[in-house]
Every structure is written in structure tokens, then in C-alpha cells.
Amino acid sequence: MSDVQKVNVNVAGGYEPNVINLKQGVPAEITFTRTNAQGCLDVVHSNDLDFEETLPIDEPKTVTIATDKPGEFDFSCGMDMFHGTINIK
After folding, report:
1. Model confidence pTM above 0.90
2. Would you state the torsion angle of the CA atoms of residues 34, 35, 40, 44, taken in this order, to the nearest 10 degrees?
3. Per-domain residue ranges for the chain?
């Protein structure tokens, strides 16, 4: 059994789910899949967690999240119009 938390996020008019709960100290992978051509959702980024990914249509992109620090961390689209939260406890 793998000790990695895996979460799939559907990107279509926003993020589903838009709240992700992770356990502190266990490596995590979040896979974003964009299924809608809405413009600003072609990028997902988080200044808090230091990642930025381009999201092509129907092509999963996986981001590895460091879970060493607890807290609430934001992620959003390229224009900061659509938001989500990653909670690490």
C-alpha cells in the first residue's frame, strides 16, 4: 500500500472539490483535470504552496504537495477568479 494521499480535482467552471483535506506528514498528489475550455482555468497556481501548472483540456496534471506544515493554503486559476483551499492537519 502506497503512503501517498491522492486527490482528483475536476476543473470545469471552478474546482470540484474546492476544499481538499490532507493529513500532515503524508506526501500528497493532487491531479487536476480540466474539462471545460473556460479561459482562466487553463492555469492553476498556489503562492502558498509554490506551484503553477498549465492545464490542457482533458489532460490530467499532477502536483505534488509538501505536507510538512499544517495550515490552510489557497490555490486559484490564473486570474485569481476561481479559488480552492488545501487544509493540512
Report:
1. yes
2. -10
3. 5-88
